[in-house]
Amino acid sequence: LSSSQLAHAARLPVVRENGVRLQFGELWRTQRTVVIFIRHFWCPMCQDYLTSLMRDVDHVALLRSGVRLIVVGCGSYGLIRSYRQIFRLPYELFVDASPGQALYRTFGMSHVPSGTQKARSPSLPHGTRSYVRHGAVSGLAMVVAHALRVGMPVWERGGDATQLGGEFVLGPGYVCTYAHRMQTTTGHAPILDVLAAA
């Protein structure tokens, strides 16, 4: 990403769990920050990804490193509190409040190709473990079970089901030192690779 793209992204609005709007750049302007863009709040593959984040990351070591980690979604901020409870997520979560998901667009993230239910995941390099633990049916069952367990408000907008996400390392300043954009619905980068880049 160029500095002009980052400057544009920095001015776009995001919303905190409490409904407060702020400019996206306030989150990474003064600190190196890992930003994980999930697809939408009801995506079972993204829920598997956050499960892997909670399982595989040494959260104390990350805190000591001075690297911040945040998660951004594209649905309603009314889902943030219960979504964080599902994973006992110690990191802040925000939603893209820009018109037409301009924040996702600015970072070059695309949509699942038209006419496909699910983009196929490319084969993984030898020795690489996938974070995906659920198929279509078991994934739906997991999402419903999570929602019921934490009282997730199902009437809130979960986000764009065709949106793809990605992972970026930003800041301090208008600097991007790592960028990965999902090409498939199961295409998040391994979280330890993202943190190693940070």
From TrEMBL:
Q: Which Pfam families match?
A: AhpC-TSA_2
- SUPFAM superfamilies with a match to the protein in the record: Thioredoxin-like (SSF52833)
InterPro entries annotated for this entry?
PXL2A/B/C (IPR032801), Thioredoxin-like_sf (IPR036249)
This chain's protein is named AhpC/TSA antioxidant enzyme-domain-containing protein
